[in-house]
UniProtKB/TrEMBL annotation:
Sorted UniProt keywords: Oxidoreductase
Species of origin: Streptomyces nanshensis
Limits of the Ketoreductase domain: 3-173
Identification of the protein by name: 3-oxoacyl-ACP reductase
GO molecular-function terms, A-Z: oxidoreductase activity, acting on the CH-OH group of donors, NAD or NADP as acceptor
InterPro entries, per database record: KR_dom (IPR057326), NAD(P)-bd_dom_sf (IPR036291), Sc_DH/Rdtase_CS (IPR020904), SDR_fam (IPR002347)
Length: 234
């Protein structure tokens, strides 16, 4: 059955891989993007998830073209890495506002239609860093760890309405972010991963697709690591 799906930050990397995977399975997929080029073959809506009005406008456009959102993947996120003593308050709050509060904004808006339908799937894209920590990423780790508490609270709050909330925690993945690392940095990072390689975006997408499926109807409040064993789920 074709569903209305919305993926935030779905114009590149992991978000785009998820969008392509679900679209190929027959879903009506829309993605939000803040910068860059919109992907071809998908309904792309420009939206800054730190702006509540833009979030509402994006949902209205998706609802008009695809119907109420039945599957939400909160993927949009940013990094502003810096050691604590050099990290400004803006560096911290901007990352939290995008990665955590942004997820709150889109979840709250999506819940309207899901509550009426008495069903829905919400998947948050966190990070292995949220579970194991990382020097220089206190802001990012805090924002991504916050998604776990948020998802589990929502699972308890709205579970009786047939809406599931789960978290996927990817490890280092083959995206533009990892491509910015030097060969030496990559090799050093690989030594910390039991499987000895980076994740492919398609592997993250397959996990999200499962959690959004009927086969996962009895899974909620879960955190699924897709990190090659780097964090072991913690």
């Amino acid at each position: 059955m074709s569903r209305s799906v919305l993926i935030t930050g779905g114009n590149r990397g992991i978000g785009l891989a998820i969008a392509r995977h679900l679209a190929e399975a027959g879903d009506r997929v829309a993605v939000t993007y803040r910068s860059g080029e919109p992907p071809e073959g998908l309904l792309a809506v420009r939206c800054d998830i730190t702006d509540t009005d833009q979030v509402d406008a994006a949902f209205k456009e998706v609802e008009e073209q695809h119907g109420p959102v039945e599957v939400l993947v909160a993927n949009a996120g940013i990094t502003k890495d810096q050691l604590l003593m050099r990290m400004s308050e803006d560096d911290f709050t901007t990352v939290v506002d995008t990665n955590l509060t942004g997820a709150f904004r889109v979840t709250k808006r999506a819940s309207r239609g899901m509550l009426r339908a008495k069903k829905g799937r919400v998947v948050f894209i966190s990070s292995a860093v949220a579970l194991r920590g990382e020097s220089g990423q206190a802001n990012y780790a805090a924002s991504k760890a916050g998604l776990v508490g948020f998802a589990r609270s929502m699972a308890r709050e709205l579970g009786s309405r047939g809406i599931t909330f789960n978290v996927v925690a990817p490890g280092l993945t083959e995206t533009s972010m990892s491509q910015a690392l030097s060969d030496e940095q990559l090799e050093n990072l690989k030594t910390q991963i039991p499987l000895g390689r980076l994740a492919r975006p398609e592997e993250i997408a397959a996990t999200v697709a499962f959690l959004a499926s009927e086969q996962a109807a009895y899974i909620t409040g879960a955190v699924v690591p897709v990190d090659g064993g780097a964090g072991m789920g913690h």
